User: Which sequence fits this backbone?
């Protein structure tokens, strides 16, 4: 690993780690973490050097996000959504499309981007919206509706979002654009009173006329699956960076389990450390082996995005699968770490207890396990056939 391009220093990560428990207990946004990350240039890490950033690749960013998540998962998840938009703009730019270059320029200028995509009860995710996009007659749109899980809700200055335009003579279209917090029509609503990932402060966002002018509308495309580079960029950066966060969290859980079993003593075995117990050793080794298989998968698929490799129709299912495997493995790894660490890990003052709550959030990010399996089944078997066949039913 080339450490010369790392943005996060060990000292910075230690400071962030030292604050994580307090932010979780108080259920507040990690403002000091964000200030330190901004000062370190972390929010411009993937902005091309020519535009004022560090020029990190997606593959390099996956490693940084793993390190940040090991220190403070909720901080990493919150910042992840900004990094996704920067990664999308970087990916689109690399393919010769300048429609999202303003994201790179504004990120370099200090703007903070958030992800306003998910909607309650909408399992179409990127492919359809229940929110409304109303044209302003000049190429811009105002957005109306509620988005959920808007991480970094207290601090974002730019929100990437989408909604459905049903006003045209053509079929409904998904409209993607970026609105500003100071432009009005935006309200943070509800409570972020959740089991884990509390410091991400992922409140819902109500859009009531939030306006994006024509030069901040990046796509108007038909609903449904598409090969558009912008949608691919969202899918790729979101799934890969999300997988990285939960992989970093799981790596920290193994570290804590190792520390714990070395210090715990077994009266049954003449006060020997639990690290001598063959069952404990097997379980920790099993967790480490599971996680070890995730690292190369993330690295390879991120590298293929960076290098614009054509994986054909399997691209989307494979991106979904990496996220699904990473989050499912992370959940199992943390569970194993809790098992070997004993009853003390159940206490709220233990870091492993917080990681156990945090890792569950991975189940709720798209793509969920059901849609991943559905996508793979369709890719391999084709659509479900009507049965019995029409001709048989008629006969």
Assistant:
């Amino acid at each position: 690993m080339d450490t010369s391009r790392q943005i996060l220093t060990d000292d910075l990560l230690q400071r962030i780690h030292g604050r994580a428990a307090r932010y979780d207990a108080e259920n507040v946004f990690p403002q000091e973490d964000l200030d330190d990350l901004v000062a370190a240039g972390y929010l411009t890490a993937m902005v091309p050097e020519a535009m004022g950033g560090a020029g990190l690749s997606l593959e390099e960013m996956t490693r940084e996000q793993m390190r940040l998540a090991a220190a403070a998962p909720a901080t990493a998840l919150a910042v992840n959504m900004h990094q996704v938009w920067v990664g999308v703009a970087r990916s689109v730019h690399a393919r010769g499309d300048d429609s999202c270059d303003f994201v790179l320029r504004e990120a370099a200028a200090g703007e903070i981007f958030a992800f306003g995509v998910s909607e309650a009860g909408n399992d179409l995710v990127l492919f359809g919206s229940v929110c409304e996009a109303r044209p302003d007659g000049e190429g811009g749109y105002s957005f109306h509706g509620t988005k959920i899980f808007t991480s970094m809700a207290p601090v974002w200055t730019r929100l990437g979002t989408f909604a459905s335009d049903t006003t045209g003579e053509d079929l409904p279209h998904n409209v993607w654009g970026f609105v500003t917090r100071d432009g009005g029509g935006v309200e943070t609503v509800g409570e972020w009173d959740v089991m884990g990932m509390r410091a991400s402060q992922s409140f819902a966002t109500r859009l009531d006329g939030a306006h994006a002018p024509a030069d901040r509308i990046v796509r108007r495309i038909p609903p449904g699956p598409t090969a558009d580079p912008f949608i691919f960029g969202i899918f790729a950066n979101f799934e890969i960076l999300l997988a990285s966060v939960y992989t970093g969290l799981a790596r920290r859980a193994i570290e804590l389990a190792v520390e714990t079993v070395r210090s715990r003593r077994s009266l049954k075995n003449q006060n020997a450390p639990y690290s001598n117990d063959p069952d404990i050793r097997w379980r920790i080794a099993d967790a480490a082996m599971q996680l070890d298989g995730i690292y190369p998968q993330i690295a390879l698929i991120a590298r293929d995005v960076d290098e614009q490799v054509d994986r054909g129709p399997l691209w989307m299912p494979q991106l979904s699968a990496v996220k699904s495997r990473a989050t499912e493995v992370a959940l199992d790894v943390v569970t194993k770490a809790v098992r070997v660490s004993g009853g003390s890990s159940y206490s709220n003052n233990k870091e492993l207890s917080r990681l156990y709550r945090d890792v569950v959030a991975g189940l709720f990010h798209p793509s969920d396990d059901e849609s991943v399996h559905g996508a793979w089944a369709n890719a391999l078997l084709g659509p479900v056939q009507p049965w019995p066949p029409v001709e048989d039913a008629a006969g």
Q: What stands out?
A: The chain has a mean pLDDT of 95. The longest strand covers residues 141-150. Strands lie at 113-116, 132-135, 141-150, 158-165, 173-180, 186-189, 203-212, 217-221, 265-266, 272-273.
